[in-house]
């Protein structure tokens, strides 16, 4: 029987293109973009409902993430049906990333010669780094 761990692992195989552009590829779960996993047993397999997010309002990856998540999860053994929802909160924060990915990202940035803080400085926006930005 498939569980949440297997679902999250499968979704982590879907790589966020912005992480690739940053030079340190990460899957949806490591990026903190898998908001919810719900499993319900059916007579012929498991019904999987997942909610995925994007990092900011206006990100064009919502539909591609949802489509790829549906395709990926539908192919898992024991999955009878899949429902993929998009999170409409747009409240992603760098602290949503897995600790292991944050560590990998810090190491990658050090090697590149610069460290960009993952935790926003007080009074700054977590996305822009500009004081007073929201």
What does this 3D model show about the protein?
- The protein is built from four helices and three strands; from the N terminus they run ααββαβα.
- The protein has helices spanning 4-12, 17-21, 62-74, 99-111, and strands spanning 34-42, 45-52, 79-86.
- A three-stranded mixed β-sheet has the order 1-2-3, covered by helices on one side.
- It has one domain: 2-Layer Sandwich (GMP Synthetase, Chain A, domain 3), CATH 3.30.300.
- By secondary structure, the chain is an alpha+beta fold.
- Residues 124-134 have low confidence and may be disordered.
- Helices cover 30% and strands 19% of the residues.
- It is elongated.
Distance between the termini: 44 Å
CATH class, please?
Answer: Alpha Beta
Q: What does the main sheet amount to?
A: 3 strands, mixed
Placed side by side, the strands forming the largest sheet appear as 1-2-3
> How many E strands?
3
User: What order do the helices and strands follow?
Assistant: HHEEHEH
Number of domains: 1
Task: Give the topology.
Layout: H1 4-12, H2 17-21, E1 34-42, E2 45-52, H3 62-74, E3 79-86, H4 99-111
Parallel strand pairs: 2-3
Antiparallel strand pairs: 1-2
């Amino acid at each position: 029987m498939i569980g949440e761990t297997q679902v999250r692992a499968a979704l982590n195989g879907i790589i966020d293109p912005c992480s690739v552009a940053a030079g340190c590829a990460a899957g949806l779960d490591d990026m903190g973009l898998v908001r919810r996993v719900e499993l319900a047993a059916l007579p012929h397999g498991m019904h999987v409902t997942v909610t995925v997010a994007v990092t900011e309002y206006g990100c064009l990856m919502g539909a591609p993430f949802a489509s790829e998540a549906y395709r990926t999860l539908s192919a898992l053994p024991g999955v009878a049906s899949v429902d993929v929802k998009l999170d409409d909160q747009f409240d992603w924060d760098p602290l949503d990333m897995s600790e292991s990915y944050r560590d990998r990202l810090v190491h990658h940035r050090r090697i590149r010669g610069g460290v960009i803080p993952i935790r926003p400085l007080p009074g700054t926006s977590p996305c822009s780094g500009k004081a007073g930005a929201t």
